[in-house]
Amino acid sequence: MNTRLGFLFTCLFIFSGSTYSVESQHPNVIMDNSILVVTEPWPPFNYVNKDNQVVGIATNMLKKVMKEAGFKYKIEVYGWNRAYNLSKNNKNTLIYTIFRIDSREPDFQWICPLIATQGVSIYSLDNRNDIKIKHIDDLKSYHLGVVGSGVTYDYLMAQGFSVNKNVDIATDELANIRKLFKGRIDLIIQEEEPLALRMQQVGLPIARLKKVFSILSNEERQACMAMSLDTPKEIIQRLQNALNKVQNIK
Fold it and tell me: How far is CA 199 from the centre of its chain?
């Protein structure tokens, strides 16, 4: 297990300015009957390995769906904002892995659920017994460390949080963890599965963290694929049918 975690750490150093691609067995230029797939580095779900291959739990499922649907495709890895905008504004462009939260609903046509996740939780240090959270609005009394893109930022902005008032922006989640341990912020908001990887990478004990609240409803915890509104509906249905078949959903 430690060997696997150590290997995945290297994937966290992929920055938004870099792009990587992996093509299907049909290495054609993206055409009308082909799909451009975009994603971000997000171990263990989607990331680029040491052989420059896009891999991960969600990537494995996506490849099975594409094979079942019979589409030609190419995967490219970008920073989150660029991947989001490419898929939102371009026909036949698919993004994964994306949480289906309310603020994103009107931007896309959705193919769900690609994978199951444990959602997103909010953590303090274990000695912060003064922090009591019963409702999302209670969080507004504290300083939360957030990256300025992605599901946590989008969710908090939709809930009325404000940058520099109760939201502190960092360049990445590792910086947020370090700021929490230095006492510069009160809380961090993390997807549960990647958190253990990040804690080991920064060399800090996960036992020092205490979960104080969870966000996202069961529906919003769906990790999906999504495509632009002008993508033909028959493509969306073809992908959803393939996903259902791969996952044995009746």
Answer: 18
